Structures are given as structure tokens and as C-alpha cells.
Amino acid sequence: MKPRHKRLAFILVGLAGIAVAAGLVLNSFRGNLVFFFSPSQVAANEAPVGKTFRLGGMVETGSVRRDADGLTVRFTVTDTAKEIPVVFTGILPDLFSEGQGAVAQGRLGDDGVFYADEVLAKHDETYMPPEVADALEQAKSARGGQELPGSTSLIE
Prior knowledge:
By secondary structure, the protein is α+β, with helices and mostly antiparallel strands. The chain has 2 domains: 1-33; 36-142, CATH 2.40.50.140. It is 31% helix and 27% strand. The chain has helices at residues 3-32, 39-43, 130-142, and strands at 36-37, 52-59, 65-66, 72-78, 83-89, 101-108, 114-121. Strands 2-4-5-7-6 form a 5-stranded mixed barrel. The longest helix is centred in the N-terminal third of the chain and has 30 residues, at 3-32.
């Protein structure tokens, strides 16, 4: 084999290796992607049933209930237009409370209940995840810019 052919073979093998590595990395990323959906999008059947995604909004006031086991918590997440019931088994973050922003990661069951594996709460008085703020703003504009009775504007 001539040196020119050896060099060409080496380059082709190197390119094939890079292509395989890139394919494996992209496949790994696709398996770990977690998309965000608002309660309105979930109610409109835009969210995947049986696949992991994030549900974000405000924890509805008066909706938090604890089961007798002490670990299972049931609450409702709303974007002020639609509500989705959530069930979470585990320890909630210290900052989790009613009327505050939260993002839950888990799966939507066939019964329409979101079964969360993880719950994230806002970390200070002014922070709201951008996805939650966008979802609330979209829900507000869908209602013609009207606030719900007894609610305050969360987006400034």
C-alpha cells in the first residue's frame, strides 16, 4: 500500500470514529431531554403520556394534602387557566408552599394525574422559573388579560 493510500485510509477511519462518537453523544442527549409544559398545555394533550417531562406553575392555595403515610403529598398546579393534580412521594423542599411557584418532574398517568419524581420550589421572594412566568403570562393573555378574582399579578 502506498503512503498516500495509508494516509487516506487513516483519515477515513478517523472520520468514521468521529461520526460514531457524535452519534452516541447525540443519542445520549436525546434520552436525557426533559421538556417543560404548563397545565394548559397538559390539558390540551400537548404533553407526552407516560414520558418524563416538567410541569410548572403555581401551587393552588388550599390544595396541598398529605396522606397518612406522611410522605405522599397531593396538590394542584395551576397556570391560572387550567389545573393539574400532582402526586409526589418524598420530602418536599423547605420553600414549597401554597400560592408559590413550583416545577415538578415526572410522568402524566392515564388518569390525568401527574406523578412527580422530583419537586422544585422557588428560592427567594422574587424568583420565578422563566418557564413558569411565561406559562402564566400566556394563560393570562388567553383570558384577555384579566386576573383571577382575589389573585395578584405574579409577573412584573
